[in-house]
C-alpha cells in the first residue's frame, strides 16, 4: 500500500492512498457475494447469482461503496499510525478511483488535533481576586434563621406594614377591560417578598382592613403576555387579614431548636465555620479560574473553523434545550436578545471550551496525568449518591450510555489537571478593587495594541490580489 501525506495550514492533512489491485478485487468480490446473499434475483437461489447479474441488479457504485467500507478503515488506520497523527475527526473521503483489476486510489482530508504551545504553566505567581466575606454575614445568617422560625400573629388594630403577610382579594383591569386570570380571592402575599408587578406590593402597605382601594401599576415592557406589555392597569383590592411576623428571641433555647447546639455561641461558631469554608472554597475557585485565564491568554493554538462550528452547534442545541426546560421558545429568545448577539456568545463560548479542552489535554499529556480506575470508582460513588442510585444500578446505567463514560472521564481528567496547576503555582490574593483595576488596565493595553497594529496595517499599501479584485467587483455589482 502506498501512502502519501501532506500537512497543510489550520491542522489539515491531505492523504493519497493506493491500495493494491488484488485487495480491491477481493473486497469487491466479497461485497458482490454479500449482496447476492441478501437480495432476491429471479432465476437464482440466494448467493448463487454470478457477479455480472448482481452488478446489473445492484449497480456497480453500490458494490464499490460497500467494498470501500471494508477497505478504508485499515488503510486510514495505517496512514494515521505510520505518520503518528493525532486526529480530531475521522478522515473524510474527497475522491476515489475504483476500477476492478487496478489499484484503488483514494484521496481524503484528515482534521488534526491543533498543536498547543504553552511556554509556561508551572512556577507562576497569579494574581487572584480575594473573596471578602461581608461584615454582616454572621448577623444576616442568624436573622435568616430567626425568619425561618418566625410565627405569624393576626392583628386588627393597625394598617399594613412592609414586612406583613396579608390575605386579600384583587381584580385587575386594563383600559376598562377585565384582565384574564387577573383576579383572585383570599390570596396570601408576603409584602416583603412579592413577585407581582413592580410597584404592586408597595401600594398594599399602609392600607386598612376591609376597605376597598385601587392599585395603579404599569406592566413591564418585556412582560411575557404581549397584549399587556407596557399597559397601565388598575387592580381593585380589599384586605381581609393582616399577619404580623414575630421573630423568636436569639438565645440558647433558640439555638437548641435549630440544631445540635447547647448555646448561641456554639450556633455562631458553627455559622462562622461555614462562612470561613465558603471563603476558602471561593478563593480556591477564583485561583483555578485565574490560572486558566492566564493560560488562555498565553496559549498559542490554531483552531480550525470546522472545529468551532461543531462546538457551536453542540452549544446551540444545549441552549435550545435549556430554553425548553424553562418554558421558552427559540423564537422568543431571538426576539429578546437578537440572533447576532446569541450566536456571538455561543461562538465565543465554543472557542473558550475548545481552548480549555486543548490546554487540559496538553498538560495531561506532558505531565502524564491519567484517569485511573481508583479515580473512576470514586467519581462513580459520588455520582451514584447524587442520583440516589446504588452503585451497581448506576454502573449499569452508565455503561449503557458510552457518551456518559467519556464525559465522566474528561471531568476527572479536568479535576486532576486543575489540582496539578494549583499545586504547582502560587496565588497572590489581592482585594477586589485592585484586581478589577488590573484587569481594566490590561484590557486598555490590549485595545491600544490592536489599534496600533491595525493602524500599521492600514498604512502599508497592498497589491490587490485576484481574489480581492473579484470580491470588490462582486460587491460593486
Short summary:
By secondary structure, the chain is of the alpha+beta class.
Protein architecture, described:
The chain has 477 residues and is α+β, with helices and mostly antiparallel strands. Among the domains are: 2-111, Alpha-Beta Plaits (2-Layer Sandwich); 151-246, Roll (Chitinase A, domain 3); 434-476. It is built from 14 helices and eleven strands. The chain has helices at residues 21-38, 51-58, 60-82, 137-148, 252-258, 264-298, 305-325, 330-337, 339-366, 373-386, 391-399, 402-423, 432-459, 466-476; strands at residues 2-8, 12-19, 92-97, 104-111, 125-129, 151-155, 165-174, 177-190, 212-218, 232-246, 426-430. The protein is elongated, with a radius of gyration of 34 Å.
What secondary-structure arrangement, pairings included, does this model have?
Blueprint: E1 2-8, E2 12-19, H1 21-38, H2 51-58, H3 60-82, E3 92-97, E4 104-111, E5 125-129, H4 137-148, E6 151-155, E7 165-174, E8 177-190, E9 212-218, E10 232-246, H5 252-258, H6 264-298, H7 305-325, H8 330-337, H9 339-366, H10 373-386, H11 391-399, H12 402-423, E11 426-430, H13 432-459, H14 466-476
Parallel strand pairs: 5-11
Antiparallel strand pairs: 1-2, 2-4, 3-4, 6-10, 7-8, 7-10, 9-10
Helix pairs in contact: 1-2, 1-3, 4-6, 5-6, 6-12, 7-9, 8-9, 9-12, 10-11
Amino acid at each position: 500500500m502506498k501512502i502519501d501525506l501532506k500537512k497543510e495550514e489550520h491542522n489539515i492533512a491531505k492523504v493519497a492512498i493506493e491500495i493494491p489491485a488484488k485487495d480491491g478485487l477481493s473486497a469487491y468480490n466479497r461485497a458482490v457475494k454479500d449482496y447476492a446473499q441478501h437480495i432476491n434475483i429471479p432465476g437464482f437461489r440466494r448467493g448463487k447469482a454470478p457477479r455480472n447479474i448482481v452488478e446489473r441488479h445492484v449497480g456497480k457504485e453500490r458494490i464499490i461503496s460497500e467494498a470501500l467500507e471494508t477497505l478504508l478503515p485499515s488503510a486510514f488506520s495505517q496512514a494515521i499510525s505510520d505518520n503518528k497523527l493525532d486526529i480530531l475527526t475521522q478522515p473524510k473521503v474527497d475522491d476515489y478511483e475504483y476500477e476492478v483489476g487496478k489499484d484503488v486510489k483514494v484521496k481524503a482530508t484528515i482534521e488534526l488535533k491543533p498543536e498547543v504551545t504553552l511556554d509556561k504553566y508551572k512556577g507562576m505567581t497569579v494574581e487572584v481576586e480575594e473573596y471578602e466575606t461581608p461584615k454582616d454575614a454572621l448577623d444576616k445568617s442568624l436573622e435568616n434563621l430567626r425568619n425561618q422560625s418566625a410565627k405569624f400573629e393576626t392583628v386588627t388594630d393597625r394598617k399594613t406594614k412592609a414586612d406583613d403577610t396579608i390575605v386579600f382579594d384583587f381584580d385587575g383591569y386594563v383600559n376598562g377591560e377585565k384582565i384574564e386570570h387577573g383576579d383572585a380571592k383570599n390570596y396570601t402575599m408576603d409584602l416583603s417578598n412579592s413577585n407581582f408587578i413592580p410597584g404592586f406590593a408597595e401600594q398594599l402597605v399602609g392600607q386598612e382592613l376591609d376597605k376597598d382601594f385601587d392599585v395603579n401599576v404599569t406592566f413591564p415592557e418585556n412582560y411575557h403576555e404581549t397584549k399587556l406589555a407596557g399597559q397601565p392597569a388598575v387592580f381593585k383590592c380589599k384586605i381581609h387579614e393582616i399577619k404580623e411576623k414575630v421573630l423568636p428571641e436569639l438565645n440558647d433555647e433558640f439555638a437548641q431548636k435549630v440544631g445540635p447546639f447547647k448555646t448561641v455561641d456554639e450556633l455562631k461558631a458553627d455559622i462562622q465555620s461555614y462562612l470561613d469554608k465558603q471563603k476558602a472554597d471561593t478563593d480556591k475557585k477564583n485561583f483555578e479560574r485565574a490560572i486558566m485565564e492566564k493560560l488562555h491568554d498565553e496559549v498559542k493554538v490554531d483552531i480550525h473553523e470546522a472545529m468551532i462550528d461543531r462546538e457551536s452547534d453542540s452549544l446551540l442545541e444545549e441552549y435550545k434545550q435549556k430554553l425548553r426546560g424553562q418554558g421558552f421558545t427559540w423564537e422568543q429568545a431571538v426576539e429578546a436578545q437578537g440572533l447576532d448577539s446569541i450566536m456571538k456568545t455561543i461562538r465565543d463560548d465554543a472557542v473558550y471550551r475548545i481552548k480549555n479542552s486543548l490546554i487540559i489535554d496538553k498538560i495531561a499529556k506532558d505531565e502524564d496525568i491519567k484517569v485511573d480506575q481508583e479515580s473512576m470508582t470514586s467519581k462513580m460513588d459520588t455520582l451514584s449518591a447524587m442520583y440516589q442510585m446504588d452503585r451497581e444500578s448506576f454502573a449499569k446505567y452508565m455503561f449503557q450510555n458510552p457518551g456518559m463514560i467519556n464525559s465522566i472521564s474528561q471531568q476527572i481528567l479536568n479535576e486532576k489537571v486543575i489540582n496539578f496547576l494549583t499545586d504547582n503555582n502560587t496565588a497572590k490574593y489581592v482585594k477586589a478593587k485592585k484586581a478589577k483595576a488590573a484587569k481594566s488596565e490590561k484590557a486598555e493595553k490590549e485595545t491600544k495594541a490592536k489599534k496600533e497594529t491595525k493602524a500599521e496595517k492600514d498604512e502599508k499599501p497592498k497589491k490587490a490580489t485576484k481574489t480581492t479584485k473579484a470580491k470588490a467587483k462582486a460587491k460593486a455589482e
